[in-house]
Amino acid sequence: MHPAMPESNHREKPSVLEGLLPIRTVANLTGVNPVTLRAWERRYNLITPQRTPKGHRLYTRNDIELIKQVLYLLDQGISVSQVKPLLDQSTGQVSITPASDTGMTWENYLQKMIEAIECFDEYALDKIYTEALSLYPVDVVSQRLITPLLRVLGEHWQDSGTGIAEEHFFSVYLRNKLGARIHHVNRRSSSPLLLLACLPGELHEIGLLFFALASVDFGYRVLILGANTPLDQLPGVHEKRPCESIVLSSSHRPSRVVLEEDLPELVKKVGIPVFVGGKIAASQQKKIEAAGAVCLGEKFASSLEKISNTLTVE
Fold first, then answer.
1. What is the mean pLDDT of residues 277-304?
2. In whole angstroms, what is the distance from residue 141 CA to residue 134 CA?
3. 74 has pLDDT over 90
4. Rounded to whole angstroms, how far apart are CA atoms 185 and 171?
5. What domains sit in the chain, N to C, each tagged with a CATH number?
6. Alpha carbon 171 to chain centroid distance?
7. Which residues touch 200 (CB under 8 Å, ≥6 apart)?
8. What's the confidence (pLDDT) of residue 157?
9. CA angle, 140 then 143 then 147, to 5°
10. Average pLDDT, the chain
11. What is the pLDDT at residue 159?
């Protein structure tokens, strides 16, 4: 049995037409991009928004609560095709194994992506990845598919004559794919600009790129500096390209100097909120907060909400 979900009155029909929200606002509030919201409606009948005379989707507050329930289930590893039966039978406790499931599971996605990578088949790889990203929020795809895939590739390279090439092939593909989508969405001239960088010593930027994609879907613009960025460079960047905040990330513990000297100095110089996310945020929370920075969790949606709330207060 699955843990009890938050109560919802998602079956109720709104009695008035006031307070309706357009799809972009709903995407910003929930972290689910418009492409995914449309797919949930068309393919799985999860949400039924109202329409303007011109056909534009409008959502109620009940719809937003329903979307949050969907996210709750997806975060537990449940496939999107299983969600509606679970919501329909939900009375506080729900079974996580419906009688039938015609959707592709995370294991299916993972295996098919591995097969495509082993054949260096970019077309097949792109088809699978694009489908997953159209049906699931970016942080769910990152957690449930990309992170396990990178782990498999990291373990596989010693056992295959082309293992290193496979890992490089996928890394280049993913950087290009994420970069293109970020560039496409990252053109809202009036949106707040976030400066994103990995802490010194962090050599892998894929997690940061996924967060960047979630950020632009949420409504921000991003300036990405990537892996292993010296913190003493950031005040100069902010001076030349003013940002609303700086978001730093790392999965590995940086040196004592970075946390106890460089980070406090950065916070002091820039005068804007500095956030630190990734695994390091939980393990080094006291040092990060002592430096004057704000800790983020590993989940993109809650992290972006925290950033939004902080910037609103500021």
1. 90
2. 10
3. no
4. 21
5. 1-102 (1.10.1660.10), 106-183 (1.10.1240.10), 186-313 (3.40.50.280)
6. 18
7. 228, 229, 230, 231, 254, 255, 258, 262
8. 64
9. 140
10. 85
11. 67
Q: Is the dihedral of CA 232, 237, 238, 240 positive or negative?
A: positive
Say if residues 39 and 222 touch (Cβ distance below 8 Å).
no
Cα–Cα–Cα angle for 107, 110, 116, rounded to 5 degrees: 140
Q: What is the mean pLDDT of residues 228-247?
A: 96
Q: Residue 235 and residue 229: Cα distance in Å, rounded?
A: 12
Produce one character per residue of 169-183: b if its CB has 16 or more CB atoms within 10 Å, e if not. bbeebbeebbeebbe
| The token pair that represents 291 in the structure block | 């430096």
Sequence-ordered list of residues with C-beta below 8 angstroms from that of 125, at least 6 positions apart, any chain: 113, 116, 117, 170, 173
Residue 198 in this model has a pLDDT that exceeds 70: yes
The answer to whether residue 15 scores a pLDDT higher than 80 is no
Q: What are the angstrom distances between the C-alpha of 235 and each of 114, 145, 260?
A: 41, 35, 17
